[in-house]
Amino acid sequence: MTDIVIREMERKDIPRLCEIENACFSRPWTAEGFEAELDRETAHFFVAQIDGVTAGYMGFHSVLDEGYIANIAVLPRYRRMGAASRLLDNAFEKSRKLGLSFLSLEVRKSNEAAIELYRRYGFETVGERKNFYSSPTENALIMTAYFDKKD
């Protein structure tokens, strides 16, 4: 059985998160970008460790009662092991504690695996951003999951 631990991002995680970014994205975040998130009160960043190895991360920002996912990334060799699901579970739990009304994100229109995962979590397509991504240029779907305030 795979042991997945989700914890808050720490400064010591930044070099590994940069490796994950470089493996997963054509325009990766920099160490300075992650560093800035550590000091931002509205930023909520978490790492996923699989059997003790930092295999992925996610971060979102909260503004008033709105949540915006900045990134979710899992190294290719650790995908389909449950890390992204556990990261989303954690984000939903944190969002509810913060009293957020929704979480929103952008995803490459061609990223069918991610879109399917988000749909399983109740995200709906609410719009599209033309040419949002580069390297290669591609549209983004805007997907949002709404929370019932009674939860």
Structure, explained:
- With 151 residues, the chain is an alpha+beta fold.
- It is globular and about 35 Å long.
- A seven-stranded mixed sheet has the order 1-2-3-4-5-7-6, sandwiched between helices.
- The termini are far apart.
- β6 and β7 form a beta hairpin.
Main sheet specs: 7 strands, mixed
Encode the helix/strand succession as letters: EHHEEEHEHEE
Strand order in the largest sheet: 1-2-3-4-5-7-6
Overall pLDDT metric: 93
Distance between the termini: 31 Å
Radius of gyration using CA atoms only = 15 Å
Beta percentage is: 35-45%
- Quickly count the helices: 4
- DSSP summary, beta strand count: 7
Q: What layout of secondary structure does this protein have?
A:
Elements: E1 4-8, H1 14-24, H2 31-38, E2 43-50, E3 53-63, E4 66-74, H3 83-98, E5 102-108, H4 112-120, E6 124-133, E7 138-146
Could you give a short description of this structure?
The protein is of the alpha+beta class.
Top keywords for this entry?
single chain; 151 residues; alpha+beta
